Amino acid sequence: MNRVRWGIVSTAKIGLEKVIPAMQRAETCVVEAIASRDLARAEAAARELGIARAYGSYEDLIADPEIEAIYNPLPNHLHVPWSVKAAEAGKHVLCEKPLALTAAEARTLVEVRDRTGVLIQEAFMVRHHPQWLRVREIIRSGRIGQVRAVQGCFTYNNPDPDNIRNQADIGGGGLYDIGAYSITAARFLFDAEPVQAVAMMERDPTFGTDRLTSALLRFSQGQAVLTCATQVARYQAVCALGTEGWLRLELPFVMEPDRACRIMIGNGDFPGPLAAEIETIEAVDHYTAQAEDFASAVRHGHDLEYPLENAVANMAVIDAVFRSAETGRWEDV
Distance (Å, rounded) from C-alpha 48 to C-alpha 45? Predict the structure, then answer.
């Protein structure tokens, strides 16, 4: 098929180091242009990555008639405004997570999508990785019985005050940045939406951002326990506990494109944590897989597996966790 022509709004680190190179390796995509509010910075990025055109404003890139799709890795508070501008210009949009800062804000994109007819998707790349697809197959096969509990943890240590993740006024903090992954994982593994959430949250006294958050989500068929933190050792884990067994992902969220992933499967025999089976998933760049899936929907006109409604649902859980951290009570999702 003809490759989808992409434009990148911003020279954000994740785009330059992860997403753009991954898109360039996709047979279905070509990155045609990149924009920054600093033209020299856009031109430097274009030279380094072999991108044909550079723009000194996001507006100029969005107005480029050759661009079909926009990748938006701007700071969190700019996700919705610039995704709206791109959609209203007739561009499809792949927007970094979190799609918005609230579920209500995310719903505005649903209206824009329906009005403009473009595709808009939240960029949770992990859902496109073969290990996640295989985990879903294992659960649906009944191999571990009915899933009753999910445990998720995602942490790192970043005390840099200049990092956007530590700036509260632009949507920084652990829950938006990495807690969203564990929430997505729980919803994915249960294949359902939680009905209530209760949480504890510790905020950095200087930054004002949440630096340690733990949440309990109540699903109709079980519970999920999630922790995210931005000032502890780097760690990631996801485990699903079923009535007949369990599974654990060795590298659930950050998977390097040249490193194989392993899924541990246990029968629940003593002493518990030892796997009865280990499945190895060959190395895949999930950013490339994400771009290819999106490009296929653009070219062939089929529905996205994860439409905007899915992003709204994830934001509704995040909203409930924030509310519970304030009220100290169970909050409806």
Answer: 5
Mean pLDDT of 304-327: 97
Nearest to residue 91, comparing CAs of 24, 15, 33, 21? 33
Per-residue burial over 38-62, b = 16 or more CB atoms within 10 Å of its CB, e = otherwise: eeebbbbbbeebebebbbbebebbb
So what's the architecture of 127-285+315-332 in CATH?
A: 2-Layer Sandwich (3.30)
Determine the Cα–Cα distance for residues 333 and 319; give it in Å rounded to an integer.
8
User: Residue 1: what pLDDT?
Assistant: 66
203: confidence class by pLDDT, cuts 50, 70, 90: very high
Cα–Cα distance, 186 to 184 (Å, whole number): 6
Q: How far apart are CA 180 and CA 196, in angstroms?
A: 16
Task: Give ranges for CATH 3.40.50.720 in the chain.
Answer: 4-123
pLDDT score, position 271: 82
Say if pTM beats, i.e. exceeds, 0.90.
yes
Note whether 154 and 179 are within 8 A (CB).
Answer: yes
What is the pLDDT of the chain when averaged over all its residues? 96
Pinpoint the residues of the chain covered by CATH 3.30.360.10. 127-285+315-332
Outline where DSSP puts E strands in 58-119: 69-72, 92-96
Inter-residue long-range contacts of 212-215, CB under 8 Å, 24+ positions, other chains counted: 212/174, 213/174, 213/175, 213/179, 213/321, 213/325, 215/179, 215/183, 215/321, 215/324
Please check whether the domain covering 4-123 is classified as CATH 3.90.850.10: no
DSSP string covering 95-106, please?
EESSS-SSHHHH
Torsion sign (Cα): 185, 188, 189, 195: positive
